Amino acid sequence: MLAVDRRLKILETVAEEQTIQVVELATRFQVSEMTIRRDIKRLERDGFLRRTYGGATAHLTRSLDLAFNARALQSAREKRLIGMAAAGLVADASSLFIGIGTTCEQFGRYIQARSELTVVTGSLPIASQLGTRALHTVVLGGTVRRDELSCVGPAAAATLNRYRFDIAVIGAAGLSVEAGITDMVDEEADIHRQAVALARRVVVLADGSKLGQVALASVAPAASIDVLVTDPSADSHQLDALRDLGIEIVLATAPLASGSLAIADEHEERA
């Protein structure tokens, strides 16, 4: 069994039983207890579990759809690095919108908590992350989509319209010069579309697999993007075409030995 499949099975067990034991999982999957502990550590780092003595308990409730968890495990390393890199781009902002999705969740984990910072989000997992930290967190409310635990609909849109943002940080199911930013769900695209219109700057977080892809629902043209944060797997032709629109490209790469993050922007790439 691949590690990603084993971790998904661990998440399924937690969702069903709300707790797991290392010894039991090691026996079930016929791997060492050390391997299971590494799996649990990885899932905790990515925000899914809280470790306890001898096992782990669910970080989120069992109502979280496991399809969402499975998708979060895809390109998890790239999403984490993107989130870390993007967090450094918003240090001076006093108001942020954070969009829906697994890459935005990673971004939420790394933003610096400041008492003067207001964050508005339609993501319940992100609101849960930020709600206990030293900043002002606003969740949109409205209808909650079960698959993503996201707030959508007229009530969410009405709350969103009360704010103006220094920066809107959103994810994308697809991004291309021709189709712009696209999403899988029209209701969520509506919220992201409105947030883009309410922000002075737009930062898009998308791992390399999303570039050149086109999803169902249109969010905004590519020209509305100020900064794209992606990873080195992104297609170079797509990146060149986006640069030609005046979009700043930030490539998030692996941490340096010192623990800091290596980030290449378009100026460094051209040098």
Helix content: 25-40%
Order of helices and strands: HEHHEEHHEHEHEEEHEEEHEEEHEEH
**Based on DSSP secondary structure assignment, what is the total number of beta strands?**
16
Distance between the termini: 44 Å
Rg on CA atoms, Å: 19 Å
Coarse shape: globular
Mean pLDDT: 84
CATH architecture descriptor of the largest domain: 3-Layer(aba) Sandwich
Sheet with most strands: strand arrangement: 6-5-4-9-12-14-15-16
Q: What is the beta-strand fraction? A: 25-35%
- Uncertain residue segments: 58-70, 256-260, 262-271
Structural class: alpha/beta
* CATH class (first level) name of the largest domain: Alpha Beta
Number of helices: 11
CATH topology group of the largest domain:
Rossmann fold
Number of domains: 2
- Main β-sheet, in a few words? 8 strands, mixed
Describe the protein's architecture and organization.
The chain has 271 residues and is an alpha/beta fold. The protein has 2 domains: 3-71, Arc Repressor Mutant, subunit A, CATH 1.10.10.10; 75-270, Rossmann fold (3-Layer(aba) Sandwich), CATH 3.40.50.1360. It is 38% helix and 26% strand. The chain has 11 helices and 16 strands. It starts with a helix and ends with a helix.
Task: Using brief descriptors, characterize the structure shown.
alpha/beta; three-stranded antiparallel β-sheet
In short:
With 271 residues, the protein is of the alpha/beta class.
Give the helices and strands, then pairings:
Elements lengths: L2 H15 L1 E3 H8 L3 H13 L3 E4 L2 E4 L7 H8 L2 H12 L7 E4 L3 H9 L7 E4 L2 H7 L5 E4 L3 E3 L4 E3 L1 H7 L4 E7 L2 E3 L3 E4 L2 H12 L1 E7 L11 E4 L6 E4 L5 H8 L4 E8 L5 E5 H5 L1
Parallel strand pairs: 4-5, 4-9, 5-6, 9-12, 12-14, 14-15
Antiparallel strand pairs: 1-3, 2-3, 7-8, 10-11, 11-13, 15-16
Helix pairs in contact: 1-4, 2-3, 5-6, 6-7
